[in-house]
Amino acid sequence: MGGKIWIVLAGVLGAVAVGLGAYASHGLGFIEDAAVREATRATLQTAVQQQMFHALALLGVGALAQRHESRWLVVAGVLFTVGVLLFSGLIYLRILGGVDSLRAFVPWGGSSLILGWLALAVAGMGLRSRA
Fold it and tell me: Is the separation of the CB atoms in 87 and 110 below 8 Å?
């Protein structure tokens, strides 16, 4: 699998993160209690930050996959994508959609992100230097 899919996903996730970051900063007026609004804003900002970091990680995976064939790069890309969807996505769903029933899966997203970094490390160990 080439790197194109990871680069496309990086672009989409990055764009969504910027939009949701703007909403977290300027929206949330529907929450009347100021303390609750600020706690919600902080939670949203954490989700946005993790999404953006991992969009950039996917960009790196895509760039590497353009030059190197590695199943570990694919594993890293899948884990980063699943991690963002579970971690950030479920936080967005809880805050913006009012769906709290999937909250228990948020840590699975964090675990996927950690495993993605480890898969990237394994991929890096297998890369060959160009002479």
Answer: yes
Q: What are φ and ψ of residue 74, in 5° steps?
A: -65, -45
DSSP state of 126: H
Amino acid at 78: V
Separation between Cα atoms, residue 19 and residue 21, nearest integer Å: 5
What are the pLDDT tens digits along the chain (131 aa)?
Answer: 578 999 999 999 999 999 999 988 888 878 888 898 899 899 999 999 999 999 999 999 999 999 998 999 999 999 999 999 999 999 999 998 989 999 999 999 999 999 999 999 999 998 876 54
